[in-house]
């Protein structure tokens, strides 16, 4: 295709692309995916409140579909994710907002089988980051655990004892990546 043919095709005309931003380069695939998504987008008008009164904390593991694993749809729940599904200060801050402003009355902590944060020690994870060419991360707490059930119970207790979240009911679970089933912990 010649330059003049490309400019005649609006889909390939650089003038139709933003002059700055990630529409090309390392994000071209996901920007293109978004355009396809937008063609059938049907979630306009969803209320920002959690329709099922639920918030969920799970791991950032890309094998987990938070809404799908619970039979939910967009708009049903607030989804929070981090490495290991651990209750951090940021999770607590977010839950306060979700509880008082977005209709959240129930909160699930959902760890999962096969989680790297439950398989390695803090030392091992820091070493793995370093071995992968990363910086010295020893000033960061990755919140690894050798007892996932105990970590889930501790995180549930942390939410239950947080003075700003007295009205939120909390449960802890482990999601099995092999079977797709939740196992209640507390």
List keywords for this structure.
186 residues, alpha/beta, Beta-carbonic Anhydrase, Chain A, 5-stranded mixed β-sheet, 6 helices, globular
How much of the residues is beta strand, in percent?
A: 15-25%
CATH architecture of the largest domain: 3-Layer(aba) Sandwich
Kindly identify the CATH topology of the largest domain. Beta-carbonic Anhydrase, Chain A
> First CA to last CA: what distance?
62 Å
Largest sheet: 5 strands, mixed
Overall pLDDT score: 90
Rg estimate, integer Å: 21 Å
Q: What is the number of strand segments?
A: 5
What's the name of the CATH homologous superfamily of the largest domain?
Answer: Carbonic anhydrase
Q: Largest sheet, order of strands side by side?
A: 2-1-3-4-5
Stretches where pLDDT is under 50 for at least 5 consecutive residues are 1-19
Reading off the top of the CATH hierarchy, the class of the largest domain is best stated as: Alpha Beta
Instruction: Give helix and strand order, one letter per element, not per position.
Output: HHEHEHEHHEE
Work out the helicity level.
Answer: 25-40%
Describe the 3D structure.
The protein is α/β, with parallel strands linked by helices and 186 residues long. The protein has 2 domains: 37 residues, no CATH class; 131 residues, Beta-carbonic Anhydrase, Chain A, CATH 3.40.1050. The chain is built from 6 helices and 5 strands; from the N terminus they run H-H-E-H-E-H-E-H-H-E-E. The protein has a 5-stranded mixed beta sheet with strand order 2-1-3-4-5. A hairpin with a 6-residue loop joins strand 4 and strand 5. The chain is globular and about 45 Å long. The termini are far apart.
């Amino acid at each position: 295709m010649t330059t003049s043919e490309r400019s005649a095709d609006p889909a390939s005309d650089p003038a139709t692309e933003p002059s700055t931003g990630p529409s090309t380069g390392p994000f071209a695939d996901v920007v293109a995916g978004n355009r396809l998504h937008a063609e059938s987008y049907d979630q306009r008008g969803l209320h920002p409140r959690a329709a099922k009164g639920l918030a969920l904390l799970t791991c950032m593991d890309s094998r987990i579909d938070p809404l799908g694993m619970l039979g939910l749809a967009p708009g049903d729940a607030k989804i929070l994710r981090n490495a290991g599904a651990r209750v951090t200060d940021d999770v607590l801050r977010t839950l306060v907002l979700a509880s008082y402003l977005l209709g959240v009355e129930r909160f699930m902590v959902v760890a999962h089988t096969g989680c790297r944060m439950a398989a390695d020690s803090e030392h091992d994870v820091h070493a793995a980051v370093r071995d992968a060419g990363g910086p010295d991360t020893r000033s960061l707490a990755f919140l690894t655990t050798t007892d996932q059930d105990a970590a889930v119970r501790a995180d549930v207790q942390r939410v239950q004892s947080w003075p700003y979240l007295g009205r939120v009911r909390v449960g802890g679970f482990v999601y099995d990546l092999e079977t797709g089933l939740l196992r209640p912990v507390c």
